[in-house]
Structure formats: structure tokens, C-alpha cells
Amino acid sequence: TRILTVGAAQLGPIQREESRGSAVARMIELMRQAKSNGCDLVVYPEAALTAFFPHWWMDDDAEIDAYFESAMPSNETAPLFAEAERLGIGFHLGYPELAFEDGRKRRFNTAIIVDKSGKIVGKYRKIHLPGHPEHRPDAVFQNLEKRYFETGNLGWPVWETMGGRLGMMICNDRRWPESYRVMGLQGVEMIVLGYNTPKHNPPAPAHDRLGNFHNQLVMQAGAYQNATWVVGVAKAGLEAGVDQIGGSCIIAPTGEVVAQAVTEGDELVVARCDLDLGNSYKNSTFNFARHREPQCYGMIVER
Ligand code: CDT
């Protein structure tokens, strides 16, 4: 057995007027709880430092950029890195990233893995961006990720760190089997992800009653079908007028939920994860080399 003890650090709402410093202080409190619960790694939500701004329309470039980080660590997140290093605990953090690449400013919905020495060992940029680029003034809230972010350009690598093979995805990525499978093909042992998922889906309100079910359904299926742990962490509760699901959970390679949040506030959920638990699946039912038939899967990448 190879045990990686993980803390899913769910955050309750962060209101528009709350500073990043205040959000980071809440995250440090959860990090300390994680350490005292024996965690090696603490996992924070998507875009964890502010209210989830794709839920409202902004025209002004400077106003948009103010929600992004152009350096990591930034001044406001430096205390989180320092505390992690002091405690000797790794963490996963989602944040909007302002990059200067290919001679222009680019915006991504990004996440990182930081190891126990405080070093950034992996970076991922969200690939499946939900929502719409145009203003929908009649909707009760916006879902403007297609306006504020570009499609991620880093693929889905996996990283050997903290004794395991770890990968990342972000929120909407978890609904797509391809996200898991690309990492599954690299032998991933734990996928960490954060999410901001409204309870109400304006284009399809009939789905609203199924939000928590679908959240769990996709992560459990992804975990089992790829013989990997999945750690999904919410920013939950009523934030800037948008009510978001909680349900942060840690899912085993068996597909079973082993720990789950019971509130919609700041809450730490802990599990001792045996990274070898997926081996019997990787060697039998999901022995990809033996049982996959990729010559039949072409349509998946052709359209
Ligand atoms: N942040 C994010 O990706 N949220 C989306 C909302 C889409 S509504 C089905 C999600 O997939 O949870």
C-alpha cells in the first residue's frame, strides 16, 4: 500500500467584496486542519480566491483582469505557499491566470499542484469551458467562461509527485470522459479538481434537481473506468446571488465515494487513499493495453 492522505478543502461562498487576503486566511485555516488530520495534500476549489466572476458580465478589460493572477505565488497567495512549506503539506489551487504568451495577453482558467516543499510541480489550464461568450441579459445569471477564458493549451499531463502519479482537471472537464481517459492512459492514480457548479442551469432548468447526482455520477464513473482516485472540491453556497452545490467528495478507484462534505460552507473532508488500490483494475478489467480497441475510436477525435 502507498497511502496519500488527502483533504478536500471545500470553501463556502466568497462574496464580491471579500478580499483575496480573507479567502487565503480561510484556506490557511483549512490547511492547518488538514495537517492536524495527517494530510499530505490539500485540494482547493476552482478559481478559489474570489467570487466566481463568469457569473456576471463585465466590459472593462481592467475590471476583468483584476480577477486574474499574473504571478503565482502572487502577493496575496504567498502566505498560503509559506504555510504549506512550513507545515510540509502539498496543495492544489485553482485560479484565473493572466499570461503573456505568443506576444499577447491570454487568460486561462488554471490550476496547479504544489509539493510539500512549496514548489509548483504541475500546471493545468481548463480545456472544457462551459457557457457562452455573449451577454444574456434575460438570464438570472451569466456563465461567461467562453468570454473570459481561452481553451487550455497544456493538455492533460500527469506528474510524479508526493509518492503518486497525479493529474488535474477543472470543473466542467469532469463531465467529459475524454478528460479522465487521457490521464488514465498515462496511468494516473489520483485526479484532483475543483468546481463552481450552480444549482440552477438557466438554459436547462429541468436538470436542476439532478445537479448533485450528475456531479457524483461523472466523477464515480471516471474514477472506476480509469482505476484512479478522484478528489472533487466545491466552492459551495450562495455567492454573489448564485447558489452553488457542495458535495465535495473523495472517490476511490472502485468507484465508491469514501468521504463527502455535509455542509455548503468551509469544510474539510479527509480520506487515507491507497494509491495501489487501482492496480487490480489496471491489471484486469481495465488493462488498457489488452482490452482497448483504439482502431474503433477514431470518430471521437474526428468530430
Ligand atoms: N465552472 C464550471 O465549469 N461550471 C459548470 C457549470 C455548467 S452548468 C451544467 C459545471 O460543469 O459545473
Descriptive account of the structure:
This protein has 303 residues and is α/β, with parallel strands linked by helices. Helices cover 24% and strands 28% of the residues. The protein has helices at residues 20-36, 61-65, 78-87, 145-148, 177-184, 211-225, 279-282, 288-291, 298-302, and strands at 3-10, 41-43, 90-101, 104-114, 120-125, 158-161, 164-170, 190-195, 229-234, 237-239, 242-244, 249-251, 257-260, 267-274. Helix 1 (20-36) runs parallel beside helix 3 (78-87) and helix 5 (177-184) packs parallel to helix 6. The chain is globular, with a radius of gyration of 18 Å. The mean pLDDT is 98. 4-methylsulfanyl-2-ureido-butyric acid is lined by residues 46, 130, 171-172, 175, 195-197, 201.
Look at the structure and name the CATH superfamily: Carbon-nitrogen hydrolase
- Main structural class: alpha/beta
Instruction: State the share of residues found in helices, binned by percent.
Output: 10-25%
- SS strand fraction: 25-35%
CATH topology: Nitrilase/N-carbamoyl-D-aminoacid amidohydrolase
Number of H/I helices: 9
Major pleated sheet: 6 strands, mixed
Overall mean pLDDT score? 98
The tally of domains stands at: 1
User: What is the class in the CATH system?
Assistant: Alpha Beta
Number of strands: 14
Poorly predicted regions are none
Computed over alpha carbons, the radius of gyration is: 18 Å
Order of helices and strands: EHEHHEEEHEEHEHEEEEEEHHH
Q: Enumerate the distinct ligands.
A: 4-methylsulfanyl-2-ureido-butyric acid
Tell the overall outline. globular
Distance between the first and last residues' Cα? 41 Å
Strand order of the largest sheet: 5-4-3-2-1-14
- Gross CATH architecture: 4-Layer Sandwich
